[in-house]
TrEMBL record:
The keyword Transport does not apply. This is ABC-2 family transporter protein. Keywords: Membrane, Transmembrane, Transmembrane helix. The keyword Translocase does not apply. It comes from Micromonospora eburnea. The chain crosses the membrane at residues 12-33, 39-56, 76-101, 113-131, 138-155, 175-193.
């Protein structure tokens, strides 16, 4: 398990899209954190989702999933290692990007966002294990966030991203709803990872 997690983290750090995304989100998050802590919270959540989708999705994009599952036949263990790796990357990036939020004395906001980031990372990684196409998934989630949750739900409905935003703002009920969404997607992912790799 430790070897799998170490391998995932090494892959993220050495693939160009991985470290470029980490540097970009860290820098952009720091900039947002300096000017507006709420904007930083939104970017942190979306960044956590993006990074988690990237950790899992790159295996399918670069066709290394075939080799990974040949070497490690226990797909659930592989998924768990990807979830843990996604959480480590997302929390590390968000914690770093929020240093200026802490410097401004917004300790509660910083803590609340860091609390919801692991949930967002699990949601993103599990979603990527189901869909297997990172670009399609991120475009779909962007459309869902803007039109379904933003326009129709007005960011108040108990839907995934609204719950993540509420949880990041310190709302305990929002945090529980976000955790429920992540758990639901994770259950689907555990079933979906068993399907043939050629089916994506």
């Amino acid at each position: 398990m430790i070897a799998l997690i170490r391998s995932e983290l090494y892959r993220v750090a050495t693939i160009r899209s991985g470290w470029v995304s980490i540097v970009a989100f860290s820098a952009l998050g720091a900039l947002f954190g300096w000017y507006d802590t709420d904007a930083w919270g939104l970017l942190a959540g979306m960044g956590a989702l993006w990074l988690a989708v990237m950790v899992v999705g790159q295996h399918h994009q670069h066709r290394t999933a075939f080799l990974l599952y040949l070497a490690r036949t226990n797909r659930v263990l592989v998924l768990i290692s990807q979830l843990v790796s996604s959480i480590i990357v997302a929390v590390g990036v968000v914690a770093t990007s929020g240093v200026l939020v802490l410097a401004k004395g917004e300790v509660a906001q910083y803590r609340n966002v860091l609390t919801v980031v692991p949930i967002m990372a699990v949601f993103g990684a599990a979603s990527a294990a189901i869909v297997r196409r990172a670009t399609w998934l991120l475009i779909g989630y962007a459309g869902w966030f803007v039109f379904v949750e933003g326009v129709v739900g007005r960011l108040a409905a108990p839907l995934p991203f609204s719950a993540f935003l509420n949880g990041g703002a310190g709302d305990r009920d929002g945090l529980l709803v976000a955790a429920a969404w992540a758990a639901g997607v994770l259950v689907i992912a555990v079933v979906a990872i068993r399907r043939d790799l050629g089916s994506h």
